[in-house]
Queue: 2 jobs
Job 1
Amino acid sequence: MKKKKVNLRHLKPNSEEQHSYDDGHNHSGSSSNIKAYIPAIISFTMLIIGIALDYFDVNFFKDWVRIIWYGIAYLPVGLPVVKEGWESIKKGDVFTEFLLMSIATIGAFIIGEYPEGVAVMLFYAVGELFQNAAVNRAKGNIKALLDVRPNEALVYRNNDYVSVNPETVQIGEKVQVRVGEKIPLDGVLLSDKGSFNTAALTGESKPSTILKGEKVFAGSINLDGVIEIETTKEFKDSSIARILDMVQNATSRKSKTELFIRKFARIYTPIVVFLAIGVTLLPYFFVDDYVFRDWLYRALIFLVISCPCALVISIPLGYFGGLGAASKNGILFKGASFLDVMTKVNTLVMDKTGTVTKGVFKIKEIKAIGWDEKEFMKYLMAMEEQSTHPIAKAILEYKDESSACKASDVTEIAGKGLKGNINSKIVLVGNKALMTANKIDVPTETQSIVESIVLVAIDNKFAGYVVIADQLKEDAKETITALHKVGVNSIMMLSGDKDSITQQVARELNIEKAKGGLLPEDKLNEVELLKQNPENKIAFIGDGINDAPVLAASDVGIAMGGLGSDVAIETADVIIQTDQPSKVVKAIKISRSTRKIVWQNIVLAFGVKVIVMILGAGGLATMWEAVFADVGVALLAILNAVRLQRMHWD
């Protein structure tokens, strides 16, 4: 049964912004406006007064007075539902919950059960309000992300800064951002440095420091001083705009559970209607003391119980809660379907550089032979100042407070390294081929080093070496251990880096299977081989650029550091907004918690409904039990789904 949009404007809170909920409800943004509850309050007050007058058997409260009183009590909450049921019938969608509620409550009036008729519709209306509040609560984390959307930009035009809509800013324009303001568009920092709060984008509360020339992202909050940036993307192409679009449309990809329940409800609802007709009429042929009113009452109870509200509301809400909880933790799922698939992942394939390593060269070891380390590094740094190679950049990060040396007559020897003059000494900096060409003996210990190594000779004597290596991320080792604990038994590393380095990193992380020196198509072939075993549910983690084919081919493609990667956002199914591989473990845990709560709701809804339906058909349950089975179970399921917003997965 497709749950149509309820036209209950006076039953639902008003808001400037309407959010479209996955099951078709058009829930408003705020549930705090007391006006939304006035119709329910009026009906509730009149119902209580009516029940009291009935209880004390007040003389004037008889016949038409009683009918009119309960009729007025019914209208504020019942009229919108009846109207919506009629509109659905005109559109060809007959078997909706609105039809069921209308038949049950109007039927209750026909047989004289006025308080029950009002009560059923009242609790349904209150349930709608609670559902609305629950949806808004589930949307809270994602709404926080939506609030990051910048609404103005101070752009330098005609020798002055003017405030404009970010969507009108062009690439290459200079934008000023004051303290406490949001970065309006992606760009590079023109100021010397800046401190930014990226919590809404990455889930990390720790401020990040950005230096001149480095990237800044729209939605980050400037924390320290007035800064200037140069835009590198239009607003529609910025990372935040694309992430927002992805999050807003995340529920369009429904899980198999959701699709099954919706298909089931379309078959289930008409069956229930015809069963209710059968409960009313068939006993006439089998029961001696058949009383039409009694069996009609049982059928009406049957109809009230049968409304699948708890299922069509709480199941999408459960998945939506999972999506919201994940986004709060810096993990973006592109749809509820990937929450489902993530629960089944048992094989993880990962890239190396940028996934478990930082992707930045750092000095790992310095070995000076016959020289003081600082003096040795002065000579090396003087030479590397002449180079633009990434290794040179890593060496120049060495901290030395003493005065630097100056190199002269520096020449580059293709494929080997550098040769120059420092303090009247000939200095050679490069690889083993450079040393061999100059007949300089190199210690045999260097042959076992698999990382990048820079050899140094001073005045034709070997002076030492520096080992340069990519650094493991802080949480890389604990991630592998945690993955095994959550049932990911097979972990494989595939890298384009040379095999010796890949194997060493794999040993450090206790990864049993690893292959290096692979092209993108080689990685794809490895994943395709794993997919030949139908028992393997494969997740691939990569940077989303070179690994795009593998991300697309795996059951779940996960992009690390996707905030700055357009290809990652386009290709991957799950975006980890930080560079922390441990977030993958958290994504699995959130997915499993979501699925667990969804199945709890399914069992709760079906179990209670079946029991009360049997009791109702047998005349052992009243309309009040029916109300509990319908609205009560729906509310319990909603409260269960909302628990996702308070869970922690550390």
Note: The first helix runs from residue 38 to 55.
Job 2
Amino acid sequence: MSGIWLAVVGGLVFFLGYRYYSKFIAEKIYRLDPNYVTPAHQYKDGVDFVPTNKFVLWGHHFTSVAGAAPIVGPAIAVYWGWLPAVLWVLLGTVFAAGVHDFGTLVLSVRNKGQSIGTLASKLIGQKAKVLFLFIILLLVLMVNAVFAWVIANLFISFPASVLSVFIQIPLAIWIGYSVYKKQGNMLLPSIVALAVMYLAAIVASYVPALQIDLVRYFGGEGASTLFGLNATSMAFFVWIVVLMVYVYIASTLPVWKLLQPRDYINSHQLIVGLGLLYLGLLFTNPEITAPVTNASADTSWFPLLFITIACGAISGFHGLVSSGTSSKQLNKETDARFVGYLGSVGEGALALVAIIAVVTFFPTAGEFSATYSGFTAASGAGLGVFIQGAGQLASGLGIPASVAATIVSVIVVSFAATTLDSSVRLMRYIIAELGTEYKLTPLTKTHVATTVAVVSSAALTLIPQGPKGFGSGGYLLWPLFGTSNQLLAGISLLLVSIWLKRQGRNYLPTIIPMVFLMFMTLWAMIDQVVTEWAPWNEGSDWMLFTFGAIILVFTFWILITAFSAIAGNRDDSIEKSA
């Protein structure tokens, strides 16, 4: 079967979902009001609350939620066969992710741009808010640690991409200044910036002197450096320090100075990247060599598939971005459909092409099976196989393989970096909320909260763990990421459902995906906590067991409180719709 057919079917499903289903949700369920004064105007401060053109905001929103996750998850999940992965990406995007991202954005806009964690207090009570914030804080910490780990390793593996990524920073600042201080247009400068980035990537692919290869600078593979670290570990350490300094600055700057223009550039990267890959697919017409379903898999795809592919189908982290940053920049309430729902469609398109790139990369089914010999092997191979597979598709357009791989890595790193500093900004908000809750005044200060966020993220990333050694600590809590992320999505959908019910509206479009997601996720998490991490099992892990058990207890507590709230009366503290 040709990979083109997957792209055609997927594109048609996404088009119909946005054209018809999102319109139904916007008009009949969320009832968007073009005259509603959004928080961006009501609380305009030039830092976080900034009215923003919907195309620019879509770029920020999409690149903040995308990162590497809609690539990594699908690239691993094809282990169970391409059909389950494709179905979950398509149906999850249309009926779950779009409704979730769109809904959390509207709910926040209708309530002063407050985060989903704060709104939990209004909807289901103060205790639930604190429990919810704990789950959110843990999730965001894992996102920070793992995405920093991914970026540092990609810089080490693809040193030709470093120059291009760092060139983007001054270009974005220049664009931000030009647009917001001189009232210029962002489109043309961002296209010029993207051209400069890709030119730098192409030149660096052929000129070793322009490749920032820290491993080589520290003496090459196997060389010993400071504190007994080898060159690779030292390079990793330096990159983590550089990244943390960058995200500290980026997450405290006003959004118009760096975050918005950089994300707008990255939205063009999405268009260029997807264009290259889908055109490459058209010209190369590769055959799918991966199995439709993998009958010999060592783990069942049911329910693990639904937590392996989070971003690209539905992800709780998206609700944090929708209610944490995007809601504070929405110019008109009617823009929420374009930003929230279409943002999830963009991520679904990225997840779909990631699947196609992987399942068409291998010449034979045997080579696919050899690489994806087990779930653990698939987890380790996923991202690398995608970059090679994507490079293979792009090379069908006549682009040299080395250049194609560099450009793909630039795109992945750019998205991951966007998610990283948006996530640190969100973590700062959460720490400040907890500081207010417990009257810890220093934590409410921007730079104190950001310092706590950055230092804790760096510490988790750098902790040595297991056979991987130094720098593998980013994965300490990673097994909890998928389940925690989906639990967060389920709880967020539940909050939106409660809000809709109190408005006297049809809440079936939000409650149905919530029930499905919570059932699958709780099933998977209970199975992991009880049969894998518990101290009575071989290969137990006390830390994962403890955190997993706490999250499970908190989740059931929140659910019980929430369902009690559904049966209760209207809450006048929640904004009423026009």
Note: The chain has 22 helices and no strands.
